[in-house]
């Protein structure tokens, strides 16, 4: 990928994550990336192409960041989820806000890479719950994912210092118990 395209996509994610989807224009991306006017439109001819490019770029970045570990114990699971939430609400908070905005604004086809990413994460969580707690625990996948999502949203919008490990620990315990 060219450095111009890379700079444009990074700037576009930052724009969406700080100013919302409506801020995503070719001109604003050029300015934010310190690119000559017209550079972004050379790579993404339409706004829809730019939006699709941003979403694919974010999904690609998240896949490369994630590298979910193989989990053998409850404590490893808590540690992994805690680390993911801390990263997504800390160093990657702007990208997290951009993902939320794009989930809400983008049409189904354009948002497909983000939805596929989400489904992959759900499969990972479900497989760990199965390994650690059996079939019944897998019925709590949505509960655990929603709890983690709620905590992530809370940290990225309200309280960036909210405790993560305690909430995750309680949610994992609840998902594994019956």
What does this entry look like structurally?
- The chain is mainly α.
- Helices cover 75% and strands 0% of the residues.
- It is elongated and about 60 Å long.
- The mean pLDDT is 92.
Give the N-to-C terminal Cα separation: 49 Å
Strand content of the residues, in percent?
under 5%
Low-confidence stretches: none
Structural shape: elongated
Mean pLDDT: 92
Biggest sheet descriptor: none
Helix fraction, binned, reads over 70%
Count of extended strands: 0
List the helices and strands and how they pair.
Layout: H1 3-19, H2 26-32, H3 39-43, H4 47-66, H5 74-89, H6 93-105, H7 112-133, H8 135-138, H9 141-157, H10 165-176
Helix pairs in contact: 1-2, 1-4, 1-6, 5-9, 5-10, 7-9, 9-10
Task: State the main characteristics.
178 residues, mainly alpha, 10 helices
Question: Can I get a quick summary?
Answer:
This protein is mostly helical. Helix content is 75%, strand content 0%.
């Amino acid at each position: 990928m060219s450095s111009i395209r890379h700079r444009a996509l990074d700037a576009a994610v930052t724009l969406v994550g700080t100013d919302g989807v409506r801020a995503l224009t070719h001109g604003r991306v050029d300015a934010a990336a310190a690119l000559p006017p017209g550079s972004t439109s050379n790579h993404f001819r339409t706004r829809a192409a730019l939006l699709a490019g941003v979403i694919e770029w974010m999904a690609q970045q998240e896949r490369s960041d994630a590298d979910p570990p193989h989990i053998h114990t409850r404590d490893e699971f808590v540690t992994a989820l805690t680390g993911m939430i801390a990263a997504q609400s800390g160093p990657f908070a702007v990208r997290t806000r951009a993902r939320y905005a794009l989930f809400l604004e983008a049409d189904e086809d354009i948002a497909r890479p983000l939805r596929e990413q989400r489904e992959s994460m759900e499969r990972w969580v479900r497989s760990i719950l199965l390994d650690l707690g059996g079939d019944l625990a897998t019925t709590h996948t949505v509960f655990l994912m929603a709890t983690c999502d709620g905590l992530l949203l809370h940290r990225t919008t309200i309280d960036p210092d909210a405790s993560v490990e305690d909430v995750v620990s309680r949610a994992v315990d609840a998902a594994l118990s019956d």
